[in-house]
């Protein structure tokens, strides 16, 4: 029974670690997306930091990425930037890869 219990605890630890890693990647990705959008809107460095944090916070509104996409697209459109949903989704995908690469290089 001990081997089974050890294996189960190991799986639980791995699951928790995978979940934490996925959360950290998503948060980093959203921050990078916020920085990308802030640059398009011509925000100052201070405004960029605040905006990137707001994009990270937007991800807590609902499950999935739609809340983040909706916020960034709405803000870019409101700022008069010529951008569409496909471009925001492409940037989100690109920032996801970049976030994963950054986190893996820190390990």
TrEMBL record:
One Pfam family linked to the record: ATPaseInh_sub_z
Top-rank taxon, per record: Bacteria
Gene3D superfamilies for this protein: Domain of unknown function DUF1476
Protein's name according to its UniProt entry: DUF1476 domain-containing protein
Source organism: Tsuneonella deserti
Taxon lineage: Bacteria, Pseudomonadati, Pseudomonadota, Alphaproteobacteria, Sphingomonadales
